[in-house]
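FAQ

Q: What does a record look like?
A: Structure on top, sequence underneath. For example:
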């Protein structure tokens, strides 16, 4: 999972920091800092944070996981 935050949209409301403090934090008073590729254990908290953002600034990207699945099925297909 990868996190992308649209910082032009972020209004520093802090919901994400409150819900997933190990992933999102404020660097200075209003500058949001975050872990782009959080541990899988953080997945649930990150989802809550993204859902709670009042301006929908947080996007979650699962492309890495999907491409792993695709490459796996491709390799299975090659063997058939
Ligand atoms: S909840 Fe949304 S608006 Fe608030 S700090 Fe996080 S990303 Fe920014």
């Amino acid at each position: 999972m990868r996190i992308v935050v649209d910082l032009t949209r972020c209004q520093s409301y802090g919901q994400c920091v409150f819900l997933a403090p190990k992933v999102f934090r404020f660097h200075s008073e209003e500058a949001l800092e975050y872990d782009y590729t959080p541990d899988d254990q953080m997945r649930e908290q990150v989802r809550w944070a993204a859902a709670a953002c009042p301006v929908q600034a947080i996007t979650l990207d699962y492309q890495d996981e999907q491409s792993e699945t695709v490459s796996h099925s491709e390799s299975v297909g090659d063997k058939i």
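Q: Is there anything notable about this one?
A: The chain has a mean pLDDT of 87.
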